[in-house]
Amino acid sequence: MNPDGKMRLAAYFNPTGHHVASWRHPRAQADAHINIKHYVEIAQTSERAKLDLIFLADGVATRQADIEAQCRSVQFISHFEPITLLSALAMVTERIGLIATMSTSYNEPYHVARKFASLDHISGGRSGWNLVTSGQLAEALNFNRTEPFSHHERYKRAHEFAEVVMGLWDSWDDDAFVRDKDSAQTGRKRAGKGS
């Protein structure tokens, strides 16, 4: 519950459905996970339904499972990178929030801060970050590690990571970039400093 006492409702996008075989339904769009028109339709429908936000879960590896099981499910094999997808959806929606998962285990704070700040500007202030850590072996292998970080290491890193990202977001005032055509000034000023 939020401080204003209102419940917030989200559309959790799992494009072909939550059942592993849902993509086989006669009316299902089998390529929904990589079909931008499908995502646009779901986003616009969610906005018309007055939902508050769209949520995209993400991981940095294909889920580990028996190859026979994986061959029968499209939902965990391939899908769009969330920031790219949400930036596209920002252009075809007006008010719905755009929330994506991004791991602190195999990213750097500057990159995460920049990507979400860009999405925030593109969407007019509608972006949000679902901070997670990555503990699967398949994820570690994708980043040239033989094993994932320990639970303690992951969460210690996540706490510091979040502080750094928020610090980067707050390091400039909203009006920090001067664009004065008359004086030809295009410089910038630091947060908390005078102009």
Report on the architecture of this protein:
It is a single chain. By secondary structure, this protein is α/β, with parallel strands linked by helices. The protein has one domain: Alpha-Beta Barrel (TIM Barrel). It is 34% helix and 10% strand. It is built from six helices and four strands, in the order βαβααβαβαα. It has a four-stranded parallel beta sheet with strand order 1-2-3-4, covered by helices on one side. β3, α4 and β4 form a beta-alpha-beta unit. 22% of the residues are buried.
Rounded to an integer, what's the Rg over CA atoms?
20 Å
The global form is globular
CATH homology group: Luciferase-like domain
Strand fraction? 5-15%
Helix content range? 25-40%
Question: What are the SSEs and their pairings?
Answer:
Elements lengths: L9 E3 L23 H13 L4 E4 L10 H4 L11 H9 L6 E7 L5 H15 L3 E6 L4 H6 L8 H19 L26
Helix pairs in contact: 3-4, 4-6
Keywords:
195 residues, alpha/beta, TIM Barrel, four-stranded parallel β-sheet
Short description:
By secondary structure, the chain is of the alpha/beta class. It has six helices and four strands.
